[in-house]
C-alpha cells in the first residue's frame, strides 16, 4: 500500500511537471489499477512504452545493480525504513566510474536495438 507521504510527493511532482512526458515500463506497479487511476485523475502525460521493449533507460540498469547489492547483504532490509537506509548507503558506494560507464554504454545499446530492427537483443 502506498503511504500518504509517497502519494503526496508523487502528486506534487506531477503538478510541477505538467509539461513533461513520463516514461514507465509495464511493470506491475505501473499497470496497477491504483496507479492508472492516479495517472488519469492527474492528467499525467505518458510516453507509450511497448511490452517487451529493451531497457534503454540507464536508471533501469542502475536499479539492477542496486538490487544485486541489496540481495548480497548479510542481513537484508525488512522494513521500508531499513530498505531506504540500505539503498542510501549502497548508492553512495557505487563508484562514479561505474555510473559513467553505464551512461556511456547507452549509445551502443541503442545502436544494437536499431541494428536488430526492434528485434531481440541482450538488453
From TrEMBL:
Origin: domain of life: Eukaryota
Pfam families per UniProt: DDE_3
Q: Which residues form the Tc1-like transposase DDE domain?
A: 24-83
A GO MF annotation of the entry reads: nucleic acid binding
Name the InterPro entries on file: RNaseH_sf, Tc1-like_DDE_dom
Q: What is this protein called?
A: Tc1-like transposase DDE domain-containing protein
Lineage, top ranks: Eukaryota, Metazoa, Spiralia, Lophotrochozoa, Mollusca
